[in-house]
């Protein structure tokens, strides 16, 4: 199945190339998924508030800022992990992956805190159309990150067990695409939901 | 007892329902007994339920689609029977609501979609000279998720009650205020589960077509059906996530009391209509483009010449796919957007008729310059052209926003979309099935019975649907379970009922034809019974497991024709070991757990939801750790198979 030895390991077989292409297409679908959420959010942000609170009444800058920093940093560290993988430094690669997952876990913890805060402010899923779409959008992103945490652990275990080979390299690379993607989505959330909402 | 009450069948019960429960039970028992008696369990499991072979998955899709055609067809005949005479009491209003809802969902999602995806599964890898799709295991999972969704949906009929808010499922009608029982929960989960399967199919086929074409097959040398499949799958990938989110919101509204589509606390019921049609209109092009692809293959084969205007065929499909995302508002011109929005969407809608018209002319010109052979598949294609054109013209009538106030939600609309979907999609699928039948099973379907079925279906279609244009213009609303004698709709409705019966006879004849041909048709049809042109005909009938013994070398979109007539050297290499994926029971188990998940969710059985969710996670972990490198079919084995077929190709 080997077809070109000049390619990086994660591209080194036909199956690998196919997996990466397939994943890019999947990310295309994910973009549509989030685009639908954003569109709905923009429709509800002013007109769907009902008797509930508006964004500016419940958003808190500090936790959101920290979340953003954590996630952006984790995107950087997963990049480092892939770089380490390319130069065949397995230990460094796994180290960076663990850091990435820890940062991701920190992000999720803060997001949970944020949700509890909303709950106390009286902004629950049931309060209004606006709170429903707000929490659904954040929740969808958060669920993706959570899934990513478990996925990352699987990949670390497999790399530790089998070393770096065409399979594990491929999986790690795809995981990094996923992680960067979640980061990009978060930047949209941060700019168009939080910053715009607090203005 | 409280716990079990939720599974009973509100909001009505009648003898027919119990009769069908008994019928379902008897059929299931008969299947189990039959399999055990003939010792076929092993065969079924090893050869079909665990298969990852695109050809078998395709056939399973098509069988399921035919089953769903009969389920949806039974609904249709019931509706036409109820409305055959004025003031009929065969079905009450609630029952009628459920029947038209399940009819629509079953026909679009579980019949037409499955038929199309089945055709793509069977044909596309053969047309591009590949051994399988890009992700064979994922492909099996797609099928089983679709199947789980279909079964879940059909279960609603006997456990808990069917959805009753129309296939478009508009809120607030579909909310818990107006549709209390679990029917719409079923709608949400059945569509969600099968929708995930469809999305995976989309990803799988784009990767397959982009990466796995035979050497020499440039994009502009792909057979037309493969082109239509590529574009269709692109639309799937961009449209289905919208449905995913819309269904999720609907689920939240109904089961967690949110206010997405309610009319209080900032909810907006029109948001559902918008999201539904942002998915829904591309969906109708997901249905029609593969049908166009099939017609292109058939018309060119039986006109005995190449397809006229290949490039414009491709270009028009690209334009259609883009426009299909820009027209959704035409489904609710009457629901208060204002004149500017309506005008814009009116124009985009009419614009779609242009590329569609180009395709019609290309088919006509293909026939004009060809020598036509009237086989059954060709007869369906020839009937398609004028009938579909009528559907397109009435579509343009509906597209005029101001005029639509007169037509909207009347039987005129019902006539329009059946007029595009039946001659468009259903004829294409039947024609494609007959055309590819020898490729699938190694014998031909009987042409004489096939033509009887054809005439029943065509005449039945015209009688069933043309009267609706007239009653619709006279003001007969759609989705009404009865009407009074003074409306004067009686006689035409009776004609419609007779048409529905003829259609039913036609479909039964098709099934009889399968039985008859299976018993009597000769088995020595050879590899090229239709004198065909594209690459899929360059291998044997029925197709061996590995598709092509030697990977073909292609230099035009009619590779097989070049090979036959122009001495093109299609198979340059020599036979070598072939790598194939392994069968696996993982997909069916995974989808089975999804079914349980959906079922428990419908009924708020949270313990079951959690257990099934853990099962889903478990399956994914298992898959992540699984090592499955496939197996090789050895050279000797291939040579032997090829010898049996009379020489390698
Ligand atoms: C020339 C091309 C077409 C045009 C201009 C067109 C236009 C329209 C318009 C304006 C409506 C909405 C009318 C109303 O609700 O009052 C409509 C409904 C519909 N059309 Fe078409 N159409 C075209 C082709 C198709 C095709 C090819 C299909 C399917 C294969 C299709 C399937 C449907 C369906 C399923 C509905 C409505 C279903 C419902 O409300 O339940 N149409 N069409
Ligand atoms: Cu439409």
Question: Would you kindly provide a written description of the structure presented here, covering whatever features stand out?
Answer:
- The complex is a heterodimer of chains A (199) and B (649).
- In chain A, 81% of the residues lie in helices and 0% in strands.
- Chain A has 199 residues and is mostly helical.
- In chain A, helix 1 (14-47) runs antiparallel to helix 5 (129-162), helix 1 (14-47) packs parallel to helix 6 and helix 5 (129-162) packs antiparallel against helix 6 (166-198).
- Chain A is elongated, with a radius of gyration of 19 Å.
- With 649 residues, chain B is mainly alpha-helical.
- Chain B has a single domain, classed as Cytochrome c oxidase-like, subunit I domain (Cytochrome C Oxidase, Chain A, Up-down Bundle).
- Chain B has 20 helices and 2 strands.
- Chain B has helices at residues 2-5, 15-37, 41-49, 54-82, 93-127, 136-155, 183-211, 224-256, 269-303, 310-323, 339-368, 376-399, 401-407, 411-441, 447-473, 490-520, 559-565, 586-602, 606-625, 635-644; strands spanning 578-580, 631-633.
- Chain B has a two-stranded antiparallel ribbon.
- In chain B, helix 5 (93-127) crosses helix 9 (269-303), helix 8 (224-256) packs parallel to helix 10 (310-323) and helix 9 packs antiparallel against helix 12.
- The longest helix of chain B is centred in the N-terminal third of the chain and has 35 residues, at 93-127.
- Chain B starts with a helix and ends in a 5-residue tail after the last helix.
- The structure holds protoporphyrin IX containing FE and copper (II) ion.
């Amino acid at each position: 199945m080997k077809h070109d030895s000049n390619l990086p390991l994660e591209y080194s077989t036909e199956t690998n190339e196919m997996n990466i292409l397939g994943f890019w297409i999947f990310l295309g679908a994910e973009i549509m998924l989030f685009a639908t959420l954003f569109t709905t959010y923009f429709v509800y942000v002013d007109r769907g508030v009902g008797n509930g609170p508006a964004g500016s009444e419940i958003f808190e800058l500090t936790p959101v800022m920290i979340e953003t920093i954590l996630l952006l940093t984790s995107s950087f560290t997963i990049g480092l992990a892939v770089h380490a993988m390319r130069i065949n430094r397995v230990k460094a690669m796994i180290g960076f992956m663990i850091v990435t997952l820890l940062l991701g876990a920190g992000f999720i913890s803060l997001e949970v805190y944020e949700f509890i805060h909303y709950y106390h402010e009286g902004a629950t899923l049931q309060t209004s159309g606006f709170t429903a779409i707000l929490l659904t959008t954040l929740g969808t992103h958060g669920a993706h990150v959570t899934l990513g945490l478990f996925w990352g652990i699987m990949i670390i275990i497999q790399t530790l067990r089998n070393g770096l080979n065409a399979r594990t390299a491929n999986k790690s690379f795809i995981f990094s695409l996923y992680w960067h993607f979640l980061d990009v989505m978060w930047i949209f959330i941060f700019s168009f939901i939080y910053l715009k909402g607090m203005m | 007892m409280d716990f079990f009450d939720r599974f009973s069948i509100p909001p009505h019960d009648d003898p027919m329902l119990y009769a069908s429960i008994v019928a379902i039970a008897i059929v299931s028992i008969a299947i189990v007994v039959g399999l055990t008696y003939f010792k076929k369990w092993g065969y079924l499991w090893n050869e079909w339920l665990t298969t990852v072979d695109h050809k078998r998955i395709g056939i399973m899709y098509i069988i399921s689609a035919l089953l769903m055609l009969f389920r949806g067809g039974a609904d249709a005949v019931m509706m036409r029977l109820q409305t055959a005479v004025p003031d009929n009491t065969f079905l009450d209003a609630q029952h009628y609501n459920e029947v038209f809802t399940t009819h629509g969902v079953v026909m679009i999602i579980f019949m037409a979609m499955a038929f199309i995806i089945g055709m793509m599964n069977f044909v596309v890898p053969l047309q591009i000279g590949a051994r399988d799709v890009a992700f064979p295991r994922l492909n099996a999972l797609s099928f089983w998720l679709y199947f789980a969704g279909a079964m879940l949906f059909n279960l609603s009929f006997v456990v808990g009650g069917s959805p009753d808010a129309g296939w478009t499922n508009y809120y607030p009608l579909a909310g818990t205020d107006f549709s209390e029982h679990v029917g719409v929960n079923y709608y949400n989960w059945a569509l969600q589960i099968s929708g995930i399967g469809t999305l995976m199919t989309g990803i799988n086929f784009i990767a397959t077509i982009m990466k796995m074409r035979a050497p020499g097959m440039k994009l502009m040398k792909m057979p037309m059906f493969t082109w239509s499949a590529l574009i269709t799958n692109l639309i799937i990938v961009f449209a289905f996530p919208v449905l995913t989110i819309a269904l999720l919101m609907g689920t939240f509204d109904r089961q967690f009391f949110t206010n997405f589509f309610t009319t209080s606390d900032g909810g907006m019921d029109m948001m559902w209509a918008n999201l539904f049609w942002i998915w829904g209109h591309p969906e109708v092009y997901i249905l029609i483009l593969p049908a166009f692809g099939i017609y292109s293959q058939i018309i060119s084969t039986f006109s005995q010449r190449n397809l006229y205007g290949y490039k414009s065929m491709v270009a028009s499909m690209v334009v259609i796919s883009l426009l299909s995302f820009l027209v959704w508002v035409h489904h609710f011109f009457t629901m208060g957007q204002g004149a500017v929005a309506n005008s814009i969407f009116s124009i985009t809608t009419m614009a779609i008729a242009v590329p569609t018209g180009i395709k019609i002319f290309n088919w006509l010109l293909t026939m004009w310059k060809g020598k036509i052979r009237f086989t059954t598949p060709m007869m369906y294609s020839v009937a398609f052209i004028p009938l579909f054109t009528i559907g397109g013209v009435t579509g343009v009538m509906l597209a005029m926003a101001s005029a639509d106030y007169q037509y909207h939600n009347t039987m005129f609309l019902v006539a329009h979309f059946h007029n595009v979907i039946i001659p468009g999609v259903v004829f294409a699928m039947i024609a494609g099935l007959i055309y590819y039948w020898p490729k699938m099973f190694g014998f031909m379907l009987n042409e004489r019975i096939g033509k009887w079925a054809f005439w029943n279906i065509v005449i039945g279609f015209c009688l069933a649907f043309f009267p609706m244009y007239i009653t619709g213009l006279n003001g007969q609303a759609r989705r009404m379970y009865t009407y009074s004698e003074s409306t004067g709709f009686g006689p035409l409705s009776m004609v419609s009922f007779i048409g529905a019966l003829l259609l039913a006879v036609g479909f039964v004849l098709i099934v009889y034809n399968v039985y008859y041909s299976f018993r009597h048709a000769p088995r020595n049809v050879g590899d090229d019974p239709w004198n065909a042109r594209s690459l899929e005909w360059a291998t044997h009938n029925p197709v061996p497991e590995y598709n092509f013994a030697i990977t073909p070398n292609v230099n035009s979109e009619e590779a097989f024709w070049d090979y036959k007539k122009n001495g093109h050297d299609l198979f340059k290499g020599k036979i070598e070991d072939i790598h194939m994926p392994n069968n696996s029971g993982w997909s069916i188990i995974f989808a089975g757990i999804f079914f349980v998940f959906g079922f428990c969710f419908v009924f708020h059985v949270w313990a079951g939801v959690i257990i099934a969710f853990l099962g889903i996670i478990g399956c994914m972990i298992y898959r992540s750790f699984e090592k499955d490198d496939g197996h090789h079919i050895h050279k000797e084995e291939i040579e032997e198979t090829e010898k049996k077929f009379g020489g390698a190709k």
